[in-house]
Amino acid sequence: MAKFTLDDFLQDDEDQEPIVPQESPSELPSSFNPATHKSGYVALVGKPNAGKSTLMNALVGSRLSIVSHKPQTTRNRVIGILSDENSQVIFLDTPGIINPKYRLHEVMMGYVQQAGEDADVVFLLVDASDTKWDHTAIFEQLKKLRAPVFLIINKIDLVTQELAQILLEQFNEQFKFKGAFAISALEGSGVVELKKLIKEYLPLGPPFYPKDQLSEHPERFFVSEMIREQIFLQYEQEIPYSCAVDIIQYQETETIDHIDADIIVERDSQKGILIGKGGIKLKRLGTAARKEIETFIGKRIHLKLFVKVREKWREKESFLRGLGYNQK
Predict the structure, then answer these.
(1) Under 8 Å CB-to-CB from 17, ≥6 apart: which residues?
(2) Which band of pLDDT confidence, cut at 50, 70 and 90, is reported for residue 97?
(3) Prediction pTM value
(4) Is the dihedral of CA 327, 111, 260, 216 positive or negative?
(5) Which of 1, 6, 13 has the alpha carbon at shortest distance from 274?
(6) Which structural domains are found in the chain, ordered by start?
(7) Are strands 244-251 and 256-265 parallel, antiparallel or unpaired?
(8) Is a pLDDT exceeding 80 seen at residue 2?
(9) By CB neighbour count within 10 A (0-12 exposed, 13-18 middle, 19+ buried), where does 12 fall?
(10) CA-wise closest residue to 156 among 123, 191, 132, 121
């Protein structure tokens, strides 16, 4: 079967202005006072599309988790790190809580469970505009955690104050939260207050990572996520959920990075939809992904996309491990 790549349909513009690398954040002092320094983990959990990724990006101040209007965009446990002189917070952005249908879903829910067990603080995010408020199963899981759990009513910019207050009261009747907050992660409302709250509940401890580090994931991970994000943004129905992205080559040079990526689908029909007539859809996907990746890494890239069919890949344990979905 023929292999399609962006090279068949897309050439980088020769007159494109060079990307100016962004300055790295200045490194904070490596020394710390063990009597006052705090560090710990904060797990962000909730149903799909509650705004967990948007909130983590707002808390860290950098776009580490991909975001789309579709539910179940996050598949891995994405780690974001926020440091200052006296503290270090490791945020755990988790997949939306669902009833698993595939082995992939089971691994995703394993990430959620592990994050809750590792956390020093747990934020349960709830979409204020979601009328389906049944969180009974989630509450049962939260009862097993040792960490304090806070209710975060998100997207309050979409509802009235009266409805937000009703939500707070209803959830407090069903679970004993340590506290409750109403925020808009997208608009940044309430984010500063959450940062202050977190520091109050973190235990004393040394930093786990260098102070200028934003995440523990390698660039390959973020590149694959940015390609997958564009799939979520540009395609409909089952296509985004049937796709995985595997970076098969990442070659760095001083002026340009060369990246080859496989887009994995489950059926030949899905492959045709991804590529589009004459490769037009694949070209559009590659162009958008390239721009996002260049902005993120701060230099030009040459991107090749290959579309491959692997039947029922979401149900195959060995294949999932190869893609990095490891339930630890």
Answers:
(1) none
(2) confident
(3) 0.82
(4) negative
(5) 6
(6) 6-21+218-322 (3.30.300.20), 38-201 (3.40.50.300)
(7) antiparallel
(8) no
(9) middle
(10) 191
